[in-house]
Amino acid sequence: MPKQWKLLPKIKKESVSQFPDINPVCLQLLFNREINTQEKIDEFFNSDYLDDIHDPYLLKDMKTAVKRIYRAIKKQEEVLLVIGIETLLLIFYILYLKIIQKNLELIIEDFI
Predict the structure, then answer these.
(1) Are residues 97 and 67 in the same domain?
(2) Does 95 lie in the same domain as 64?
(3) Residue 2: predicted pLDDT
(4) Mean pLDDT in residue range 12-34
(5) Is residue 17 part of a domain?
(6) Dist. CA 32–CA 10, nearest whole Å
(7) Full-prediction pTM beyond 0.85?
(8) Domain that holds residue 44
(9) Cα dihedral sign for 68, 72, 77, 82?
(10) Most buried residue, 11, 99, 100, 106, by most Cβ within 10 Å?
(11) Is the pLDDT of residue 65 over 80?
(12) What is the tens place of the pLDDT at every residue in 40-58?
């Protein structure tokens, strides 16, 4: 069965004019994620990561992935991570691995 894309409605012109400092494409992405008030936008761009970030272990199979990455580091294997934007938080969790492990390569897919 072919994938059915669900397109969200295009952002209204009034919303674009309400936030003139934000690129319309970025604003569309924010609104798609229900980040649609000045307060929510400010919180998104100026997050207090200690208070606002969610536990990465809530992601499916995170424990398995972390164990596998650590095992690869221990064995000095090369690690290639291909992630989508929705797993961007994973970067914050594993960035320090790049510092201690020279064989870690990170690819972020561009879906825009």
Answers:
(1) yes
(2) yes
(3) 85
(4) 90
(5) yes
(6) 9
(7) no
(8) 13-48
(9) positive
(10) 11
(11) yes
(12) 998 888 777 667 667 778 8
Q: How confident is the model at residue 78 (pLDDT cuts 50, 70, 90)?
A: confident
Residue 6 placed within a domain: no
Q: Which residue has the tokens 């229900």?
A: 34
Q: Residue 106: CB partners within 8 Å, gap ≥ 6? A: 81, 83, 91, 94, 98
- DSSP-based three-state secondary structure for 83: strand
3-class state of residue 16 by DSSP: helix
User: Does residue 83 lie in a domain region?
Assistant: yes
C-alpha distances (whole Å) from 109 to each of 48, 62, 65, 82 are 26, 19, 18, 7
Specify whether 38 is located in the same domain as 64: no
Evaluate whether residue 4 is within a structural domain.
Answer: no
